[in-house]
Each structure stands twice: as structure tokens, then as C-alpha cells.
Amino acid sequence: MLRHQQTVGAVVIDQEGRLAAATSTGHGEEFLRRAIAARVAFQYEFSPNPDISQICKNIVNIDMKDKLAGLITVDKNGNIGAETNAKMFYGSYKNGVITADIIGHQTYRFVYKLF
């Protein structure tokens, strides 16, 4: 049995720009309490020059600084942003090739263009 509960989430964008998202929470209720997805959307929508990577960084390191958190996002243009304050974080994307990254605490952030 796992002693550390974790949250798994997925975000997908198709070739037509349609988004779908799902999550399975282990102790991710804090993301719901703090309306993290809404914060990402609000900052992206109302920023004059939205940078999805910077938005992730701000939210994880400011809004979630008192919790272990990781965030992977995709914007309407297929840009992916990811940030974590945890020791390890996994990310994956598909752009003709399946790729997975292990992101270490504050050592690596990935930003990819999906198409």
C-alpha cells in the first residue's frame, strides 16, 4: 500500500484545438479548494501576453508554496507549461512520438509545442 497519496491528471488537445481534462485525486483537494484551474485560466485569459510556463511557475511557487504541488498545462496554441515544488514530477506528450520526462525539483521545466 502506498503511504503517500498523489494526484494524477491529464490534459489533451486535439488537432482542432479542442481541450479535454481529467483528474484522479489522492490529496488534490487543495487544488479544488484554491481553484487552481480557474486561476490558471483567469491569468491566461486576462494577461496581455500570456505565457503558460510563467503562469504555472507563479501558481506553484506562490499560490501553492505551502503544499507539495505540480502543474501541467496546455494552452489553446498547444504550448505546454509545467512546474513543480516536489522532488520529482512526471510529464508526457505526443507529437508524432511518445515522450516522457522526469522533472526534478527546480532543476528542469519543460515547454513543448504540440503541433
Automatic annotation (TrEMBL):
GO terms for biological process, alphabetical: L-asparagine catabolic process via L-aspartate
GO molecular function annotation: hydrolase activity
A Gene Ontology term for the protein's cellular component: cytoplasm
Cited Gene3D superfamilies: (Glycosyl)asparaginase
Pfam families: Asparaginase_2
Family: Belongs to the Ntn-hydrolase family.
PANTHER family: L-ASPARAGINASE, SI:CH211-256M1.8
Protein name: Late endosomal/lysosomal adaptor and MAPK and MTOR activator 5
